[in-house]
Amino acid sequence: MAPAPSTEEPADGAKMSDYDRAMALIDDERYAEAVPLLQAVVKRAPKNADAWSQLGFASRKSGNWKEGEGFYAKALALDPNHQEAMEYLGELYLETGRPEQAAALLARLVKLCPDGCEARSELEEAIEEHARSRK
């Protein structure tokens, strides 16, 4: 008789999806390690706007702003109202000296979530911090 299958998750995360593993790496600020996992996810699921947005985030945090910008654009092409992609792209615009474009994305977020949302709050805070650092 075969042993009963274990219901416990393996300690090494072998059962975790590439997306989940990438998110865990991002949480640990191991962005460059998350990139290939997210690339595998978008290859398998090219219409996954969340994965494209996270790929943009991991790329940007790894210092690859141009690639990150392209991945955010892909996420927004798939879902024009993807709040997280707008927030992250706005932050990239601030990091690359384009505060006007960040402000335009914030205006879109204000329309999308007039009562507030996390993406709007985060981008507002980033824009305020950017303005303070310029004084």
Automatic annotation (TrEMBL):
UniProt KW keywords: TPR repeat
InterPro entries, per the entry: Endocytosis_PI4K-reg_protein, TPR-like_helical_dom_sf, TPR_rpt
Q: Which Pfam families match?
A: TPR_19 (PF14559)
TPR repeats at which positions?
A: 49-82, 83-116
Q: Which Gene3D superfamilies match?
A: Tetratricopeptide repeat domain
Report the family membership: Belongs to the YPP1 family.
Record's function text: Involved in endocytosis.
Record protein name field? Tetratricopeptide repeat protein
- Organism of origin is Thalassobaculum fulvum
